[in-house]
Write a structure and sequence with these properties.
Blueprint (H helix, E strand, L loop, with lengths): L5 E4 L6 E10 L5 E7 H5 L6 E2 L6 E7 L5 E3 L2 E7 L16 E8 L2 E6 L6 E3 H4 L3 E8 L15
Antiparallel strand pairs: 1-2, 1-5, 2-3, 3-4, 5-6, 7-8, 7-11, 8-9, 9-10
Length: 151
């Protein structure tokens, strides 16, 4: 069964908060984005933490080669492995390549960083690549600017 988990950056502390995503009113204020930490909810507490809406990302239910959870908005460095399987691109991809994890076209995708944009629906080919989280679009925007081969 897929693990449903979200993360977002706290408005108060700027720290990442992990749990269930919700939108709620805070008193008289309009609807805001919040994360309810899973451990709080499991213990009967509903203590939402307000988060910046543009930082909310869902867990893909996949891990990188170091065992770290991969979330929407993460930046990965991928290296083609020697099994020669997976998806091929036009123009051809050069490895290693830096990619951003996105939800697009009703699927989890990798979007290449750099001038040659291409997508890979990664759950089908994930096992054919070595991947490592090198940052995310919120904490490391500088990784989005460079050539896809720089890291």
């Amino acid at each position: 069964m897929r693990d449903i988990l979200f993360r977002g950056k706290s408005v108060d502390t700027g720290e990442w908060v992990y749990g269930w995503y919700c939108r709620q009113s805070f008193g008289r204020w309009p609807l805001k984005s919040a994360i309810v930490p899973r451990e709080d909810a499991e213990n009967g507490y509903i203590h939402p933490t307000e988060v910046y809406p543009d930082t909310v990302g869902q867990f893909t239910d996949l891990n990188d080669t170091n065992g770290r959870r991969v979330f929407e908005g993460d930046i990965l460095r991928i290296a083609k492995t020697s099994d020669s399987l997976g998806t091929y691109y036009y123009p051809p991809a050069q490895y290693p390549a830096n990619v951003v994890v996105k939800w697009d076209l009703c699927a989890w995708m990798w979007e290449a960083i750099g001038k040659d944009k291409y997508y890979l629906t990664f759950p089908e080919a994930w096992c054919h690549y070595e991947s490592e989280i090198i940052g995310n679009i919120h904490d490391n925007p500088e990784l989005m600017k460079g050539d896809k081969h720089d890291a």
